[in-house]
C-alpha cells in the first residue's frame, strides 16, 4: 500500500490514497483518501491541520486499512466474467480462487467465441501477463473498461497493440486517464469509436485530443465531462496540417465541459456548456450560430439538421454579421 494507489473502500467505493500515517488525537495508523464520486467529510484539512489535499472540498476522508480492497487484475476479471471451463495449467496461483464461484457460471463462455469484452465496474487495477488469456482474445473488436482502478495506462496501451489488433470500439470512461501518448495512436489504429468521458484529469484538448486526430478510421469520439475548456486545432508546432486530422470523424460528443468556443466538426453534442445561454432564446441563438459557422455539421445534440433549419440559420447569421459591420461604421 502506497500513496497514489487506487483502491476500493468497503468493496464498492473507488478512491485514491493520499496519506498514510498518524492523525493527531486518534491512535493507530490512518489512511487518507479521496473518493472518486462519493462524498467524504473534508478536503484533507482535519482538526486544524492539513494532512493531504483533495481536488474537491468534501471528497476526503480517513479510514482504517481493513476497509481497503485492491480490485482485480485484467485476467482475473476475465476469469470472473467469462471463463467456465479451464485447466489448472493456465491458472496463475496468485489468483484468488474465490472468484470462480457458482454465481458466475451463467456468464461463462469460450473466450475464442466472443468479440466483445465488458469489464465495466470490475475494478481492474492492473494489466498482468497471461498469454493464454490474451492469445484467445485476438478477435476482440470491442473493449469496455469503464469505471475501474487503472493507474498505469502505459500497460493498457502495450496490451492493446500486442493482443487486440482488431479492436474497433474502446470505452475507458470513468477512470483517471491523464494523458494520451503520441505512440498510443499506433496501438489503436483500427479504432472507430472511442469514449473517454468522465476522466476529470483530461482537461486539455490540445495537444492530447489532437493526437487522436491521427487515427485514420475514428468516426465517433465521446469526451463528455472532462473539464475541457476549448477546442483547439494544432498550429505548425504539431507537425501536421489541421486539415489532416480527424479525416473520418463524424460524431463528437463533448457535453458537460467548460467549452466557450468551437471549431470545424461534423456532428456536435455540446449540451450544458457555457457556449449555450441560460434561456430558450439564447439557446436558439447559440444553436443557429453553430449551424451557420460549421458548414459540414449534419447533427447537433444528436438531432439531424434539415435544409430549412440550415438555410434559416445561415440567413440570420449573415444578417447579424452585416448589422455588426454597419454599426461599426
UniProtKB/TrEMBL annotation:
List the source organism.
Answer: Rotaria sordida
The record's annotation in InterPro entries points to:
CAP-Gly_dom_sf (IPR036859), CAP-Gly_domain (IPR000938), Leu-rich_rpt (IPR001611), LRR_dom_sf (IPR032675)
What protein name does the entry list?
Answer: Tubulin-specific chaperone E
The record's annotation in Pfam families points to: CAP_GLY
Q: Which SMART domains match?
A: CAP_GLY (SM01052)
What SUPFAM superfamilies does the entry give? Cap-Gly domain, L domain-like
Per UniProt, residues of the CAP-Gly domain are 21-64
Q: Read off the Gene3D superfamilies from this record.
A: CAP Gly-rich-like domain (2.30.30.190), Ribonuclease Inhibitor (3.80.10.10)
Amino acid at each position: 500500500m502506497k500513496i497514489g494507489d487506487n483502491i476500493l473502500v468497503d468493496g464498492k467505493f473507488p478512491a485514491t490514497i493520499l496519506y498514510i500515517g498518524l492523525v493527531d488525537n486518534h491512535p493507530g495508523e490512518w489512511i487518507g483518501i479521496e473518493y472518486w464520486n462519493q462524498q467524504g467529510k473534508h478536503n484533507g484539512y482535519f482538526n486544524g491541520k492539513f494532512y493531504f489535499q483533495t481536488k474537491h472540498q468534501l471528497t476526503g476522508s480517513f479510514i482504517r486499512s481493513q476497509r481497503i480492497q485492491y480490485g482485480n487484475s485484467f485476467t482475473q476479471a476475465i476469469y470472473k466474467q467469462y471463463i467456465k471451463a479451464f485447466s489448472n495449467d493456465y491458472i496463475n496461483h496468485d489468483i484468488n480462487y474465490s472468484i470462480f464461484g457458482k454465481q458466475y457460471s451463467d456468464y461463462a463462455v469460450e473466450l475464442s467465441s466472443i468479440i466483445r469484452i465488458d469489464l465495466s465496474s470490475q475494478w481492474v487495477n492492473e494489466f498482468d501477463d497471461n498469454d493464454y488469456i490474451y492469445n484467445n482474445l485476438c478477435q476482440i473488436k470491442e473493449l469496455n473498461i469503464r469505471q475501474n482502478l487503472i493507474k498505469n495506462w502505459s500497460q493498457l496501451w502495450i496490451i492493446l497493440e500486442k493482443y487486440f489488433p482488431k479492436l474497433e470500439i474502446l470505452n475507458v470512461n470513468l477512470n483517471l486517464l491523464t494523458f494520451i501518448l503520441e505512440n498510443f495512436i499506433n496501438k489503436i489504429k483500427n479504432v472507430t469509436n472511442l469514449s473517454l468521458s468522465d476522466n476529470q484529469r483530461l482537461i486539455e484538448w490540445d495537444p492530447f485530443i489532437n493526437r487522436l486526430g491521427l487515427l485514420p478510421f475514428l468516426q465517433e469520439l465521446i469526451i463528455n465531462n472532462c473539464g475541457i475548456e476549448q477546442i483547439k486545432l494544432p498550429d505548425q508546432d504539431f507537425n501536421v496540417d489541421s486539415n489532416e486530422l480527424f479525416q473520418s470523424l463524424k460524431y463528437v460528443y463533448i457535453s458537460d465541459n467548460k467549452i466557450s468556443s468551437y471549431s470545424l466538426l461534423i456532428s456536435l453534442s455540446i449540451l450544458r456548456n457555457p457556449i449555450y445561454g441560460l434561456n430558450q432564446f439564447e439557446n436558439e441563438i447559440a444553436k443557429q450560430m453553430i449551424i451557420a459557422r460549421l458548414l459540414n455539421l449534419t447533427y447537433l445534440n444528436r438531432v439531424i439538421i434539415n435544409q430549412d433549419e440550415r438555410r434559416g440559420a445561415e440567413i440570420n447569421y449573415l444578417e447579424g454579421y452585416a448589422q455588426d459591420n454597419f454599426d461599426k461604421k
